[in-house]
């Protein structure tokens, strides 16, 4: 059990936060067991999960006898517990570049509440139909596009700045998956988004780690 990794996700596979942790594990090439909880049935509120996970939220990671919740904490823990060069790097080595990646993740988790509500991941992964935007949702969609264009300037394939000896546009980082999922809330629902951003989101979603996640959902390529 000491080395066992167990990730708890939600039935329906709709959680963008479980998505981030899952992609991190797969990009690292780590063997992981999966536990699927039915949130509608209150599985996350029952013992022992409610106590062990501390927050009672999805996702939660158990590594041996250690428990950790909150996706950004899980992502960063896995980066440090399974570091490069033995395992792929998902956060830049450079301090400022790493700070930028964390900024992208924090923004996507703390902002755009109306967009996340009106273009829920159920419209991506469960085939739910989205209603027309409210003014607040439309404003959030426009804010996402404006900020994403700064996260991904022309020619950039990643939000991570390119390393001095690395490929142009920056190497893949976990924030690229998080941003692509947010952009797909627009793309999958036919909402306006710049072709350059839509193309980037589609390219990121072709990664094997994300394709594996999508096999658990009703996602259809568009």
Compressed to H and E, one letter per element, the order equals EHEHEEHHHHHHHH
In the CATH hierarchy, the architecture of the largest domain is: Up-down Bundle
Count up the domains: 2
Number of strands: 4
Task: Write down the CATH topology of the largest domain.
Answer: Glutathione S-transferase Yfyf (Class Pi), Chain A, domain 2
Helix content: 40-55%
- Low-pLDDT segments: none
First-last Cα distance: 41 Å
Using only C-alpha atoms, the radius of gyration works out to: 17 Å
Structural class assignment: alpha+beta
- CATH secondary-structure class of the largest domain: Mainly Alpha
What spatial form do the alpha-carbon principal axes imply? globular
Q: How much of the sequence is in beta strands? A: 5-15%
Mean pLDDT, all residues: 93
Q: What topology does this entry show?
A:
Layout: E1 5-10, H1 16-28, E2 33-37, H2 49-52, E3 60-63, E4 66-69, H3 71-81, H4 95-110, H5 113-118, H6 122-125, H7 135-151, H8 174-187, H9 195-204, H10 208-214
Parallel strand pairs: 1-2
Antiparallel strand pairs: 1-3, 3-4
Helix pairs in contact: 1-3, 1-8, 1-10, 4-8, 7-8, 8-9
Question: Which features does this protein show?
Answer:
Glutaredoxin, 10 helices, 4 strands, Glutathione S-transferase Yfyf (Class Pi), Chain A, domain 2, 222 residues, alpha+beta, 2 domains, four-stranded mixed β-sheet
Question: Would you kindly provide a brief summary of this structure?
Answer:
By secondary structure, this protein is an alpha+beta fold. The chain has helices at residues 16-28, 49-52, 71-81, 95-110, 113-118, 122-125, 135-151, 174-187, 195-204, 208-214, and strands at 5-10, 33-37, 60-63, 66-69.
